[in-house]
What does this fold into?
Amino acid sequence: MDGLLRIPAVAGAPRLLLRLEGAALLALATAGFALTGLSWWLYALLFFLPDLSFAAYMAGPRPGAAVYNALHSTIGPAVLAGVGLLLNSPMFLGLAAIWAAHIGFDRMLGYGLKYASAFGDTHLGRIGRASAGA
It folds into this structure.
């Protein structure tokens, strides 16, 4: 294994299903955003905002993975959408939809939640130059 930690990852049909699930989340969250009546400029402006979590990797892979995963888990947008429903707030619902759409987009492309071992180690497989077919 030449000293590298082997990270388990989903493969085959389950991996394809998870990517399709990401595409479905992207499509449904985008449709949900459309129902809020908010500006598409807001959608475009904020779509990649969760990727600012990459900056946490400057503190190392463990804190980087923790911050990245916090902003790339569906828990956050689900809570925000729940608050939006309780408060009848199109803005909260729209922000939740943008956030969820971003997560779906990432999953569709094969970018999964990160392991603390390295940025490229994800639950959907290794990403980057050493991905070996990921």
The beta strands are 121-122, 125-126. The chain has one domain: 12-121. The longest helix spans residues 12-36. The chain has a mean pLDDT of 89.
